[in-house]
Structure prediction request, 878 residues.
Amino acid sequence: MNVVLLSGGSGKRLWPLSNDVRSKQFIKMFRNENGGYDSMVQRVYRQITRVDSEASVTIATSKKQVSAIKNQLGDKVSICVEPERRDTFPAIALAAAFLHDQKGVGEDEAIVVCPVDPYVDDSYFSALKSLCALAEAGTSNLTLMGIEPTYPSEKYGYILPEGTGEVSKVKTFKEKPDVETAKRYLAQGAVWNGGVFAFRLGYLLKCAHEQIHFTDYQDLFLHYGEQKKISFDYAVVEHEPNVQMMRYTGRWKDLGTWNTFAEAMDAPVIGNAVLNETCHNTNVINELNLPILCMGCKDMVIAASNDGILVSEKEQSSYIKPFVDQMEQQVMYAEKSWGSFTVLDIQDGSMTIKIVLQPGHRLNYHSHDHRDEVWTVMSGAGTAVLDGVEQAVKPGDVVRMAAACKHTVIAGKEGMQILEVQLGKEISVHDKHKYPFPR
Amino acid sequence: MNVVLLSGGSGKRLWPLSNDVRSKQFIKMFRNENGGYDSMVQRVYRQITRVDSEASVTIATSKKQVSAIKNQLGDKVSICVEPERRDTFPAIALAAAFLHDQKGVGEDEAIVVCPVDPYVDDSYFSALKSLCALAEAGTSNLTLMGIEPTYPSEKYGYILPEGTGEVSKVKTFKEKPDVETAKRYLAQGAVWNGGVFAFRLGYLLKCAHEQIHFTDYQDLFLHYGEQKKISFDYAVVEHEPNVQMMRYTGRWKDLGTWNTFAEAMDAPVIGNAVLNETCHNTNVINELNLPILCMGCKDMVIAASNDGILVSEKEQSSYIKPFVDQMEQQVMYAEKSWGSFTVLDIQDGSMTIKIVLQPGHRLNYHSHDHRDEVWTVMSGAGTAVLDGVEQAVKPGDVVRMAAACKHTVIAGKEGMQILEVQLGKEISVHDKHKYPFPR
Prediction:
């Protein structure tokens, strides 16, 4: 099947584990078979390939997330990069054009679009396969996934089916009604819209061309910023008369707050933490290299990363956003396509960073106007390139780069760990010129 | 007056702010006039000199604490170093010999001995002055401080006075009785022993020579390790018939647990932390360079340092010790006589440390057998010395030391911040040879 995963969100609600460059879907929280931890996006990818080993997966996302996706999934998925954020209709239109023009998917082939972060069982992905088959059969233009509702939420779209069977034509569709309307819909047997859309690629390209003026993928990509911000539900689903839906009754959760996130954890503790026997219903995720000791904690979530430390009652944790908005968002840790960096120390006039390079990977070739830098190789061997001149480096070696010096380093087959000291009056992430790699 | 402050304790009960090398008396928690924070030992020293600007203060302590004392109090106090821990009687005997032989204090002069960390008002130190005057008058051999008891504690010594006046002869003294005995004592009008002893120096030297075979301070210092571990209460107070006591009724608290420590804090938060409006009776001390966000925390104490993070209900926090005993005690931060160090990163084969040197101070001149080191100067200028050769260093300069190279660095008048990367298979604090400074 052809799956398009929509990967959005900046994820302040799961601070300090999510930040401007790390959305919640990249937090490693699920124990995997190797004793390590997988993120939501890794879990979902694994679930898809377990259900369909031939599945072709495309992730539609913003530039910011490309590094994290490549770092976590490698080259196993295609990435359709949105030049900027324009809501789900332009994103799905761009993905459709990408699949058609770049990946050669035929107009009769079925595509299923779903969020990148549903917390679900494998049966959900079996259902996606069924949705694709229904879409390919062509009896309806659009096939949705109906979720058994539990309360009259204002957050979801509502689908009113014609029948009570597993698959049914849709009578009415209503995006995010108020509570009273939602109650009326529920009384009539409505279900929630799971945010999953299956269709033939040709159908979606036709819808896209009707609403957006573009020739092909490249053209849409170039003019993406001019598109109106509108969701797929408002732009397409509400206006399409020929829609069907399939019910899904398995586990389905949105891990959007610490409260729900903690419920989904396989164990109460991830990382270095001890809870004494008087703790109750308390979860700890510790990404720091320090022990956490919890005593007498009741119904709490404690999360620690290089961005900060959250100590919150679970209920209260859903009110986190305004507090995080007020915090200075110096990014202290980020995954990059080549590995990761961690800020270790910030002083007036200097900043110290730990760089971890994956085997065979390299930094961008770049220079700075206003700062000198010093590298000390902590582990692994590789090749540093300074103003075009290569030199082999090994643990204990020191490389000094004055301002304006073009530089990069390429890790050998073991990867590398490098300590970088930045020195200068104005240290800023924006002080960076990139150049083509000279090799 | 001559004051001897007994500074003991390894302070695991206030983990992670106290550790093997930082006892609780060195934690900076009291707001001072300069907008910074003072430690207990700084506060006590300030209180003593406010009551008696001519006071001569000697701190009796172990080797481990000398660096922290010098860093916090400079050369304003004398330090009588116990070569190892032998309880209070040998410690007071050593201090007496130190005052007599090294400081030239006369045998008729009064000495008052008290703990380094009482949380008290200035009136306590006025009381110490009165105790000295009583001791010097010579009507009794020993003068104690009596504290109004609040419950039949098994932790304290009990003094049964002959009268009910402010100063009174002591009928009986009993160290740490069981609860039943304590109740009986209280019914008879006993008071707690405040751990303060005033006497003429000559009296104590006589007691010391009766129980310990030594000629002078140097001799006792050299044979200190052979002495029996016994408290001053058991060795002297219980056997002395001619004892008097003076009542003290002002504030008197032992900040031995997080619960009492939090009560003494001037403000609920020290360091970078935000408590939302649903928090109640919660204290945060954050020594880390990361924000802490607390939501819905009730009756809690949260303490974070480079050694770890404690999140505890206040009541529970008194049970901390066994958990801390189990933790690996890699010291991540320590005050030294020359400044401080902070461990930033530990890897297999490398360790990264930030060194802060006070103006004009220097590291010991030393070498390592099994590791190479690289310094990157982050701020300040100074002089590095490598195998006897001096070189000026400034921000951005890099100094490399192979194993066996003797090295030190001397900070200029602004102090220095240096990043040190240690590289080797076996990195240990014990891999260190010290040498006399070659200048």
Observations:
- The two ends of chain A are 39 Å apart (CA to CA).
- The first strand of chain A starts at residue 2 and ends at 7.
